[in-house]
Amino acid sequence: SQQGEEDPQALSIQEGENATMNCSYKTSINNLQWYRQNSGRGLVHLILIRSNEREKHSGRLRVTLDTSKKSSSLLITASRAADTASYFCATDATPGETSGSRLTFGEGTQLTVNP
Amino acid sequence: DGGITQSPKYLFRKEGQNVTLSCEQNLNHDAMYWYRQDPGQGLRLIYYSQIVNDFQKGDIAEGYSVSREKKESFPLTVTSAQKNPTAFYLCASSIGPSIYNEQFFGPGTRLTVL
User: Fold this and answer.
1) Interchain contact B43–A (C-beta under 8 A)
2) What is the band of B114 on the pLDDT scale with cuts at 50, 70, 90?
C-alpha cells in the first residue's frame, strides 16, 4: 500500500532556481524521511523530520511537516544540475518507539535541473 | 569502507528457476530490509529483519524467501512462484530497533527473467 504520494510526478527547472516537492500521506506517522535516487542506483537518505517537528534544514534542503494536513514539502534552494534525481518521501507509522523502522515509500518526484 | 554491497548488479534468470540475491553489510546494523522497485514506481517492502534469526513479511512477500543467519547477511531468494519477478531489487539496513533511524541502501540488483 502506498502511504505517501508525491506531487508533482515530474519537475523541470533551470539551474539556480528553487525546487519544491510535496508529499501527502494517509495515517498518523512517527517520522517522515526524504530520500534521493540517481537513475539506476540505490537511495540516499537526505533528511528525517519527526512528527513533533514542523521544519528542518540541512544545507540547501528545507523540509516542512504539517501533521494536521498530513503533508510535507521538500525545498531545494539554488538548484544545480547535479541535483537531477528522483526524490522520495517515506513515512514511518510503526506503532511503539522500539518496534523498529518500517518505511512506506511514495512513488517519487523526478527532478531535472537544466544547466 | 563501511557500507552495503549487493551482488550481482545484473542478473538474468530463465522462467521457472529460483535465484538468490546477495546483500552484505559491514555497518554493524541490526535491521535489514529488501525492497522491490518497478519502473517509475516507489519502493515496496518484501521482507525485513530486525535481528539475527528473525524476519517478517512485508507488503509483497509472496514468491520470495529470506534468511538471516548472520548479522551481516540477508540474502533474498526469488522463487519460481513469483509471477512477475523482473524488477530492481534494493537492500537496506538501519542501526537498530528505533523509529528514528534512517535506512542505508545498497546499489541494487536488476533482475530480468528471460
Assistant:
1) yes
2) confident
Distance CA A27, CA B11 (A): 37
User: Is B39 part of the contact surface with chain A (CB cutoff 8 Å)?
Assistant: no
Which of A1, A4, A101 is facing B59, going by the closest CB pair? Answer: A1
Sign of the CA dihedral with A9 first, then B45, B75, and B94 last: positive
What is the rounded CA–CA span in Å between residue B113 and residue B19? 10
Give residue for cell 518526484. A109
Cα–Cα distance, B4 to A42 (Å, whole number): 10
Looking at chain A, which residue has its C-alpha nearest residue B59?
A1
Nearest-angstrom CA–CA distance, A27 and B106: 28
* Chain B residues lying within 8 Å of A107, measured CB to CB: 40-42
User: What pLDDT digit, counting tens, does each position of B52-110 carry?
Assistant: 999 999 999 999 999 999 999 999 999 998 989 999 999 999 998 677 789 999 999 99
Mutate to test the interface with A, among B44, B99, B112 (most CBs of A within 10 A): B99
A105: exposed, middle or buried (C-beta count within 10 Å: 0-12, 13-18, 19+)?
Answer: buried
